[in-house]
Amino acid sequence: MATSEATRTYAPDAVKATAGKLLAQYRTLFTATQGYAPVDRSAYDTAVFDWYDAKGAELATLGFAHLGDMTPIPANPKPGAPPGAFLRRFLAADGAVCADIFQMKGGTHGTWTRVANMVSALGDGRFLVTSTAPRRFNTPDHVLVDYAAPDTPVADLSRAHRERMQRHLQAHAGATVDRWRSLDEVLAADSRMLAATAAFRQRQGTPDVEELVRLGSERDFAILVHDELRRLAFPDEAIAAAASTWTIAELPLQRAGAAPMGLEELVAFALHQGLAQVAKVGSPLNPFLVLDSGKAFFFVCTAGNGDPMGIALQALRDRGNGARCCALVVDTRIAFEDGVKHDAILAMASDRDAAQGHTWAQRYRPKSCLRSFKAIGAPERVGGARNLFLEAQAN
User: Fold this and answer.
1) CB 64 within 8 A of CB 79
2) Measured in whole angstroms, how far is the alpha carbon of residue 91 from the centre of its chain?
3) Cut 0.70: pTM above it
4) Helical axes 12-27 vs 219-233, angle rounded to 10°
5) How many Å apart are CA 368 and CA 283, to the nearest integer?
6) Do residues 70 and 87 make contact, with C-beta atoms less than 8 angstroms apart?
7) pLDDT digits 0-9 by tens, 149-177
8) Residue 76 contacts by C-beta under 8 Å, 6 or more apart in sequence?
């Protein structure tokens, strides 16, 4: 990855020590099962329950029934450790929404983090979540999450969640929501979500750069720590990466509007940017990845014979969280349906929710001493492509 002058001021030992500690902590999130124990009220100060009781009373007015209080059992319990945070769980009258509330304190004199979650299970196996939790780790594709402000009243959180549910059902023909009837059914759904999340994190292998930044790291330090994390977690990948050297230039591209682009708009935008680059500086075009926000990552291989797909997947994995669509743009020469080979800008575009991507091409005539640059015809869809989001998760 591109390394600025500022990143070189960090001590290598500090980078390695931080990466080793973070990797061990991250791997504790790989657990696919979670046990719970009843809450021992005598182990807590009575004031701890005041917030739970107040929020529980608010949920009761909304028709939620109290299912129980439960303490997660740690995978490696430490003898003599103080009691951990526990959650209080509720179920809506229609069984379509489970509400969880919990609180934890950052040390003896730290501040409280208080969280409320609204969770529904969709009939296709995914989960709809509306939460006041601080956003830290990436969300797997099977969880459709929306983050609310930490102080959002539970009534507003519940209403926002119900509105999201209705929009989802209206937008997806045949979509359904599971109805829970008991704590056992809620816990069974909980286990399905946890197992799928653990598998997602195992595929990801390490926290990415954006996750490290959200956890409080400076970006330059996060980039170095992430590189070390990948080296520790995927030694074969590190050996392959050593054979070539890439730099990445990240910049927002100028475009009309601020809303994220849909896939078709992104394809047109990406091909236009590729043509503009070739028209300005000539062939070959440096490959680049563009997101639906208009942010782009330009790749330059400075040593070896690198594959732009590999560095694009790394950039998408590390810096593409939140993007719904992306396109990898390369300069190539291909044969079209008429059998004639042309220079072309190729855009391999993916939607996060689709099974596979699509490849579009724009023919062009390169500039020469006798001819000017010229775009030929309109963009053409020339085939399928791998879904880059799925590939980034799997690598």
Assistant:
1) no
2) 28
3) no
4) 60
5) 10
6) yes
7) 999 999 999 999 999 999 999 988 899 99
8) none
